[in-house]
Amino acid sequence: MLIIKKIVKLHNILVEERVFVILAFLWIILLAGGTLVYNFDAESKTTNIKSIYDAFYWAWVTMTTVGYGDFSPQTPAAKLIASIMMFFSLLLISFLTATISSLFIARKIQEGKGLTSIKAQNHYVICGWNNQSESLLTTFLQQSGEKSMQVVLINEEPEDEIQNIINKFKPHKFNFVKGDFTNDVILYRAQVDKASAVLVLPYLSKLGASEVDEKTALAVYSIKALAPKVKVYAYLLFKDSRSSVKRAKVDGIIISDEFGPFLGASQLLQPGLPPFLTEMFHGETSHMLSEPVKSAFVGKLFSDVFSHYQTKEKKIVLGIYREEKSDGISGFLSPDSGDYLDAFIQRKLREAGRTMGDEQKIKTILNPADDYVITNRDHLIIFS
Question: What is the rounded distance in angstroms from the CA atom of residue 81 to the CA atom of residue 124?
Fold first, then answer.
């Protein structure tokens, strides 16, 4: 179905640009020119155009400016027809070449402006933009350890600024979709339904601080309605906005400067702690990461796994996280209470075919007990 839609779209573009009209005229010139040259040269004893097929072959080679020279008209009338045919065919082929080139150039320009659909799968989508986004991308790519990551940016920033960012992160494959990331059409262009994960950032360039989290919550609703199985994470400015995105069953929440008060107090009372955390998160020789539990560790005790990483791999296992089922979205919505927003959200989710039952959530266990039994759903949080 998708291939048929693309063929129909290409057909419509070619019709709009009159490509088929140009091709039709070229065929008329080829058939008419070849036929006339064959007829005028038929009586010539020196002609090497012996059949109508030779005439059509000569016409095609001449029109495409290849000119092998194996066939050529001999009579004055045939040469006159050839000259007229060459003039108009060159003119039409020039138009055809220019038209097709302009289509490709127009598409590249649209891609640069973020106005085309992205061809991507298992990519990462980042919605919104602010003054920390570039640093976030740098850290994300460093932690991934991959030589080439595919990332799609959705925002309304000027194209030249985004292109500068994209150029900084080569050879990673970055794409840009310009527009409102709460709009379904824009989200479809970014292929959010095929993404590995989506991160929604506070978009401070367009909105005031009081409105940013509302837009973030709306974006989560929109994304989850289009792609309920895709992981969506929200970056909020205020703690009070947490309940808004929870209603949409967001998969993770980051609160801006959530650790600021803790670090400020620690700097006064425990001055060695903030530098240690900075080294843990941003150090060049050591860093924190997570990885799925190896099949060999499933069913073993946490103490055994901890000992293995410490002695064999020189790493420290700080904790574990796993996905567990949580209450469905119906636990947050109460249409019977007269809340118009809840009723609207519930109706939209049903229209999108989204379930309101239990969904997967992440549970973290810091420094599990020694007798904790490792399961195949666990991920290890490691400091190396």
Answer: 60
282 domain-assigned? no
Residue 83 resides in a domain: yes
pLDDT per residue over 320-355, tens digit each?
988 765 544 444 454 444 555 556 655 655 555 454
By three-state DSSP, how is residue 172 classified?
A: coil
Distance CA 44, CA 301 (A): 98
Sign of CA dihedral 112, 114, 119, 123: positive
> In this structure, what CATH number is given to the domain that contains residue 174?
3.40.50.720
Residues 122 and 247 in one domain: yes
Nearest-10 Cα torsion for 370, 371, 372, 374: 100
HSE-CB for 312 with a 13 A CA cutoff: 7
Residue 361: which of 320, 332, 319, 328 has the closest Cα? 328
pLDDT in tens, 189-220: 899 999 999 999 988 776 777 788 888 999 99
Token representation of residue 154: 């959705």
- Dump pLDDT digits (tens) for 33-54: 888 888 888 777 777 788 888 8
Whether residue 125 sits in one domain with residue 251: yes
Other residues' Cβ atoms within 10 Å of the Cβ of residue 29: 20
**Contact in structure between 124 and 194 (CB atoms under 8 Å):** no
| Residue the block writes with tokens 């005028």 | 40
Helix H or strand E segment including 244: helix 242-246
Q: How far apart are the C-alpha atoms of 185 and 191, rounded to whole Å? A: 10
The answer to whether 359 touches 249, Cβ cutoff 8 Å, is yes
Going along 53-149, which residue ranges are E strands? 124-127
Coil, strand, or helix at residue 363?
Answer: strand
In this structure, are residues 329 and 249 in contact, taking their beta carbons and an 8 Å threshold?
A: yes
